[in-house]
Write a structure and sequence with these properties.
The chain is of the alpha+beta class. The chain folds into three domains: about 5-125, Orthogonal Bundle (Butyryl-Coa Dehydrogenase, subunit A, domain 1), CATH 1.10.540; about 130-240, Butyryl-CoA Dehydrogenase, subunit A, domain 2 (Beta Barrel); about 245-395, Up-down Bundle (Butyryl-CoA Dehydrogenase, subunit A, domain 3), CATH 1.20.140.10. The protein contains twelve helices and ten strands. The strands form three sheets. Strands 1-4-5-8 form a four-stranded mixed beta sheet. Strands 2-3-7-6 form a four-stranded antiparallel beta sheet, with no helix packed on it. A two-stranded antiparallel ribbon has the order 9-10. Helix 9 (about 325-350) runs antiparallel to helix 12. The radius of gyration is 22 Å and the shape is globular.
C-alpha cells in the first residue's frame, strides 16, 4: 500500500497552502470581510477568486477542457483539506457546496448542450447553483421515496408543483437541479430537472435561520406552483432521478469530509499555539498532561479520518461506488469535527469561546455536519446493511463493497 502522493499533486498542495495561509486566513481577523450571515463577503471573495485563478488553482475538480485542473477524488482529498484551513477557503477556489456537487453531477451526466448552458457558467464562477431535493414532512428527506413534489405532463411540457425546504444556496443561485416525482415506481419514479431562477412558476418564501454561519444563499424554503419546463431540461432521462441523486450525493458526502478535516486541523493548530504560550500556576498549558491527552486524541482522530477519506477516494477512482466506505468516513469525520472543535475551545478557554479566533465559528458550523447529506444514524444503517449481506466478506481487503 503506497500512501505517497505524486510530485505534481504535492506541488498543487503547497500552492494551495501558501495562498490560504498568506492571503485567505488573514481576512478572517477583519469583521469587514464578513457578510451578514457569517461568511466571506462578495468583495473579499471576488479578490480571492481572482487570486485562485491567477495561481491556476481554480476549479481543480473539473476537467481541464472545461477550465479546471482535472484532479479526481484522491487529488481533491489532498487539496480540499488544505483549502479548509480557512473558513473562507473552499469557496475561494470554487470547491464549496453546493456548487461542488452540482458541477460534478452535471459534468458526469449532462449532455454537451446541458454542460455548455448549465455547467460552464458555474465552473467559470459566473453563477451559483442549488440542488433542490429536501421536503417538509410528509415529503422526502433522507428517504427520496417519500418525495411529493410532482412534475406532470401538460400540453407537451413538464409542470412542477410542490414544496421544498432547507435548500442550500437558493437565495443566490441562478442554476437549479430539481428532483420531482414523475411516476410511482420505487426506483424509476423520480426525475431530475434543470431550471433558472428567472423562470416563472416558483418562489422562495423564506430564508430559514440556522444555528451556525451560513453558506452564500442560505437555506431556503421554496414553493413550486406551475414551473413549466421543456424536455431538454431533464437531466439523464425521465425516471432516472434516483440515479442522479446517488451519483451526486456519493462524492458530495466525501468532499464534505475532505473539507471538515481541514477545519479540524485548523482548530488543533489554534489550540496548540495557544497552549504553547499560555501559562497558569507556573506551567505552560502544553506541559499539562490533560492538555496533551486532548491534543493527542484530536490528532489521532483526524488522521484516522484522513485514512478513511483517502481509502474511499481511492476506491472511487478504481471504479467502486465505495458506499460503505463513504458512510464510514461521513460518520467518523463529522463526529471528529464536533469533538475537536469543542475540545479545542476548552483548551483556549474564554479566548476560544470569543470571536477572537474562528473556533466558535467552526463549533457552530460543525453541528450540521452530523445531519447534512444523511444523518449519522442513516449511515450506520447503510453500513449494517453491507455487514448483514456480506457476513465475513465485509472485512475483506481490496475493491469490494459496491
Amino acid at each position: 500500500m503506497d500512501f505517497a502522493i505524486s510530485p505534481e499533486l504535492e506541488r498543487a498542495r503547497q500552492k494551495v497552502r501558501t495562498l490560504v495561509h498568506d492571503e485567505i486566513i488573514p481576512l478572517e481577523s477583519d469583521p469587514a470581510n464578513y457578510d451578514s450571515h457569517g461568511n466571506i463577503n462578495h468583495d473579499a471573495l471576488g479578490r480571492m477568486r481572482a487570486r485562485a485563478k491567477q495561481e491556476q488553482l481554480w476549479s481543480p475538480q473539473m476537467p481541464k477542457e472545461r477550465g479546471g485542473l482535472g484532479w479526481g477524488p484522491v487529488g481533491m482529498s489532498v487539496l480540499y483539506e488544505e483549502m479548509n484551513h480557512s473558513i473562507f477557503g473552499p469557496v475561494s477556489f470554487n470547491c464549496a457546496a453546493p456548487d461542488d456537487g452540482n458541477m460534478y453531477v452535471l459534468n458526469k451526466l449532462g449532455t454537451e448542450e446541458q454542460k455548455s448552458c448549465w455547467l460552464d457558467p458555474i465552473i467559470d464562477g459566473k453563477v451559483r447553483s442549488a440542488f433542490v431535493m429536501t421536503e417538509p414532512h410528509p415529503g422526502g428527506g433522507s428517504d427520496p421515496g417519500m418525495m411529493m413534489t410532482r412534475a406532470t405532463r401538460e400540453n407537451g411540457k413538464w409542470v412542477v408543483r410542490g414544496h421544498k425546504w432547507y435548500i442550500t444556496g437558493a437565495e443566490e443561485a441562478e442554476h437549479f437541479i430539481l428532483m420531482a416525482r414523475t411516476g410511482d415506481g420505487a426506483r424509476d419514479g423520480l426525475t431530475a430537472f434543470l431550471f433558472h431562477r428567472d423562470e416563472p412558476g416558483w418562489e422562495i418564501t423564506r430564508r430559514i435561520g440556522i444555528m451556525g454561519p451560513e453558506e452564500h444563499g442560505g437555506h431556503c424554503e421554496l414553493v413550486f406552483d406551475g414551473l413549466t419546463l421543456d424536455d431538454d431540461r431533464v437531466l439523464m432521462g425521465e425516471g432516472k432521478g434516483l440515479k442522479v441523486t446517488q451519483v451526486r450525493l456519493g462524492l458530495a458526502r466525501l468532499t464534505h469530509c475532505m473539507r471538515w478535516l481541514g477545519l479540524a486541523r485548523r482548530c488543533v493548530q489554534i489550540a496548540s499555539d495557544y497552549a504553547a504560550e499560555r501559562k497558569g500556576f507556573g506551567i505552560k498549558l502544553a506541559d499539562r498532561e490533560s492538555i496533551q491527552i486532548k491534543l493527542g486524541k484530536a490528532a489521532m482522530d483526524i488522521d484516522m479520518g484522513r485514512l478513511l477519506v483517502m481509502r474511499a477516494a481511492w476506491k472511487l477512482e478504481q471504479g467502486s461506488k465505495a458506499r460503505q466506505d463513504i458512510s464510514m468516513a461521513k460518520i467518523h469525520v463529522s463526529e471528529t469535527l464536533n469533538r475537536v472543535a469543542s475540545d479545542m475551545i476548552q483548551i483556549c478557554g474564554a479566548k476560544g469561546y470569543s470571536t477572537d479566533t474562528v473556533l466558535e465559528w467552526v463549533y457552530r458550523y460543525a453541528r450540521q455536519a452530523l445531519l447534512v447529506d444523511g444523518a449519522t444514524e442513516v449511515h450506520q444503517m447503510v453500513i449494517n446493511r453491507f455487514l448483514q449481506a456480506e457476513h465475513g466478506d465485509f472485512w475483506q481487503w481490496g475493491k469490494g463493497h459496491d
